Amino acid sequence: MSSRERILGRVRRALADVPRDEAPYGEAVARDYLREHGERTPGETVDLLAENLAEYRAVVHRCPDGELPTLIARLLADRGAGSVLVPSGLEPGWLAESDVTRVADRAGSTPAELDRTDSVVTACAVAIAETGTIVLDGSPDQGRRRISLVPDHHICVVRVPDQVVASVPQALERLDPTRPLTWISGPSATSDIELDRVEGVHGPRTLEVVLVG
Hints:
By secondary structure, this protein is an alpha/beta fold. It has six helices and twelve strands. 25% of the residues lie in helices and 23% in strands. The protein is globular.
C-alpha cells in the first residue's frame, strides 16, 4: 500500500459518519464578516496602503504616469545597481531612461545567476490597503515567482487606484487561485529567539513600492 492510499484511506474513515445530505463546506461556513473596515474614498484607500507599506519598512514613492521611467532610473542609480531582472511582459517604457544591464527572466536561470543580479522591477496583480500587502500572480509583467525572491532589491509598481483594494476578501475576488500567488508585506524579515530583526533572509532586503497614477 502506498502512502497516498494510506492517507486517502484515513480521510475516508474520518468522513464515514458524515451524513450525505450535510451542507457543503462552502455553504456551511458563514460569510457574513465585514468586507472592509470603515468607509473610505479611493484616495483614502491609497493613503492607507502607503501608510501600512511604510509600517512594514517598505520604501514608498508616488509619481504620475509620465514620470515613472525617470523615477525607476533614479532608484536603480541610487541603489548602485549594475543589473536588473526584467519580466518578459514588463512595459518597455518603464526602463527607457535607465542604462542598467537588463537580465531577462528565463526558466533556465540558476539561483546563482539570479543572486548576482542587483535588482528586479515588476508590476503587481493587486495591493491590499488594510494589510499593506502586494500580491504577485506570475503574470508576464511580474515574471516567475523566484525573481521577486532572490535579488536583494525589488521595485514593484502599483497602478493607483485601479490595482488597490481595501481588504483581503476584495483582493481574493480579483485573484485566480490556480496561479502562483506571492503575498508580500514589506521586505523579507525574520527575528531570532531574542527578537533581533534580520532582513533579507528569504527574499529582498529592500522593497520599494511605486504608486503610479
